[in-house]
Amino acid sequence: MSRTSLALSNLRAFVILIVLGFHSVLAYLDSLPAAHHAFQVPPYEWQASPIIDRERWFGFDLFCAWHDVYLMSLMFFLSGLFVWPSLARKGAWPFLRDRLLRLGLPLVLAVGLLMPIALYPVYRVSAVDPSLAEYWRQWMALPFWPCGPQWFLWQLFALNIVAAALYRIAPGAGDRPGQWAALVRDRPARFFLALVALSAIAYMPLALRYSPWSWFQYGPFAFQSSRPLHYGVYFFAGIAVGARSLDSGLLAADGMLARHWPVWLAVAAVTFLLWIGPTALIMEYTQGAPLGLEAAADLGFVLACAGGGMFVLALVLRCATTRRRILDSLSENAYGMYLVHYVFVVWLQYMLLGVALPAIAKAAIVFSGTLALSWAATAAIRSVPLGSRLIGTDRRALAKAS
């Protein structure tokens, strides 16, 4: 396996740690309201903060703010890297069949079975009748089926369908973007500017129309109203970068992106400030901020999203190109951990509500417990042949793509 492949494998391990950490600290944000959100009261704000603890720490707000800006876009980018080689190897229909098995079936099981278990504590904290029967009655009375973090999977599956259709119509469509992506190996700033320009076109009109915080929900399907096209830009940017050998393009372990990681650290810091500054000012308005300020915050988001993602990629390519057994295991179990972790996060946060500990200690307990339990649960599922086929990681795909 090449150094780039190892870096991307290790990045998968780091990403799942960030995801678990992000959700583990949501109960302890300083910006949360004083009381829990009632389960049956619109707009059902418990979806963003399922459990609200009285212990808070402002540092968690900053941690979540930065990762919320770039992390999901980076995940869509990484998901697109191996799509075009896989389509070329399998063809459109076999590719979609595999995606349906890999994304669709686990999505149905996670949303249909795990989410009702995960959210029972959310109902209990404000319920008059905490019985399971009443919980199920109120669950079924919701105008949607909560999907939690699994919204990412159905959007990813939809983008895979678009990519397969494009390949079916024009199998050579990835050649020219792939050629351009290979050329930016020594000019990552060009890739950054192109990414910013395209995502600004995709994101800013929707953000100004719907606001960056609104969500659309229908049945088990949910998405942030301002971001679906933005995520599509990152997914297809990943396809362009992955259309040719990763070792000879933007993500080369010895390329300019990796070698100049301190520069991208500075870019990430500056662009984050460009987003959080106007966003903090917007929060001061109760009736709506000026249009110019909203546009500045939306442009700041686009810049910070690209800057944060480029920095993380540069850092990993520079510093995480060696093999570690623990990172191998995390990488191989990352997908399953993503599917099951929310159950453990919410229940552990709920169990700690009455415990007299500071927010940092509670978050550490939730994170450690979630990491251990979701890791063990995934390993157990993967020990069964069907479970291994559904959520196992084929490390050979990384090697082939490089």
What features would you highlight for this structure?
402 residues, two-stranded antiparallel sheet
Give a brief rundown of this model.
The protein has 402 residues and is mainly alpha-helical. The protein is built from 17 helices and two strands.
Descriptive overview:
This protein has 402 residues and is mostly helical. The chain is 70% helix and 2% strand. The chain contains 17 helices and 2 strands. The chain has a two-stranded antiparallel ribbon. A hairpin with a 2-residue loop joins strand 1 (215-218) and strand 2. Helix 1 packs across helix 17 (395-401) and helix 8 packs across helix 10 (228-242). The radius of gyration is 21 Å and the shape is globular. The protein starts with a helix and ends with a helix.
- Most strands sheet: 2 strands, antiparallel
Low-confidence spans: none
Radius of gyration: 21 Å
Structural class: mainly alpha
Biggest sheet strand line-up: 1-2
Helix count, DSSP H or I runs of 4 or more residues? 17
Q: What is the count of distinct domains? A: 1
Number of strands: 2
First-residue to last-residue Cα separation: 8 Å
Mean pLDDT comes to 93
Overall 3D form: globular
Helix content: 55-70%
Please report which band the strand proportion falls in: under 5%, 5-15%, 15-25%, 25-35%, 35-45% or over 45%.
under 5%
| Strand/helix succession | HHHHHHHHHEEHHHHHHHH
